[in-house]
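Write out the 3D structure for:
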Amino acid sequence: MNFEKAKKLLTQLSVFYFLLAAMIFFVAGDGFRHEIVNGSALSPSSVIGEIVDGMVVEQRLPLGADHVEALNLQVATFGRQNTGILHVDIYGEDGTLISSAQGRLEDMGDNQVIRFSFAESLDGMRKQYSTVKIWSEGCQPGNAITVYYGNGIQAGKYTLQKGIASEDLYQVDGTSGSGTLCAYFNGYNDLIFYKVYWPLILFVYAAVAVVIRRWWNQAKQGKCNPLTTFYAMVVQYGFLTRQLVSRDFKTKYKRSLLGVGWSILNPLLTMLVQYVVFSTLFSNGTKNYPVYLLTGIVFFNFFNEAINMGMTSITSNAALIKKVYMPKYIYPVSRVFSSLINLGTSLIPLLAVMLLTRTWPKWSLLLLVFDILCLVVFVMGMSLILSTCMTFFQDTLFLWGVVSMIWMYLTPIFYMDTIIPEKFLALYHMNPMYQYINFARICIIDGISPNPISYLWCILTAVVVFAIGVSVFRKNQNRFVLYL
């Protein structure tokens, strides 16, 4: 190993590390200081009737945030211009009035979600429930509005019924209804992550530096370790890796009239087909469904393609492996990089659909660098594991076909996770592809930074799977030639 070149390479990686950390910190902004909390409501199924003077509508709702700023309520005007005042009072668990808001009926449109902002935020009540009381002033029959209620989640023409406890049903003048009001609170939670961010960044850097220092000393003694392996891939075999990437990329589109154009057309055509099929079933309540759908397709296609290519990278290069010595990990790694080129071209139609649907790019798009980097590391780990399995067990190819199909349906590509039963959500969110795709959608559609937990999930899944992949591959690579 050339230690001068290795030192230069490590310096470049250090600079990239701190530039990436700085970019994330400044682009994330308030995302590391506050977590926006938007409650959710069941899909509207009907209305409760006119809210006239003397009538009181009650609903028990969780506040769900450290600082609650507003209540959102979906109303209906019966298609007419009404006059009067709609009052919203918020009572605490002890029955005391803690806040109130009001709105003029003439300012409310039909089937709109009206935001009732509080003069002061409700603080320190995150785990408490409130009682929302709605009443009117100056509203008589024929001159009043109503509010929607629901008892399930609408998925196109189907409704997924939700079990609602009796105490959570809405009440009109003390009589329970048959669902819950389409109402939810807005607010934010305080985060301290921005205070520990740079100490954490420096701690990770110092910890890695200690490990690399140990590997450096071992390399001087002629011992092989991950540092020497990484150096060999980047410097010693860098040209070969680039040639393999180029070969895989060119081979994929060999004798194709459109060539690389298929990287652009494929996700677009897939989106169009799935949009026609699933838009009536799952687009209800989904913000900008075309971008939502295409983001899931682009990221999952990269995951699936890279693993399919990486899984067969050893067996398909058997002749080369038997004749020429080179580190075997180069083969699955080069396959992942060639798929990464396809991901880059697939982002072009995604950007085009964003512009067509007026989802204007924001600074949060820069955070996709972090998301894609973690996804690439995760996919490399998976490719190392599966390429090892494929070498010893040819049935791995067929088993992965089944697993990848199940994985696709367990990932919210064309549907929202709101249709998943609440008791399974925690387990469902442990799906790594859910984390990567959800991270991208927040950056692209919402234009904000995901919460710190999303960053930690992405890093954790990437590092753990990659570490397992490297360990499995290193222990078995010397036996590959016996099975090729």
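The chain is about 50% helix and 20% strand.
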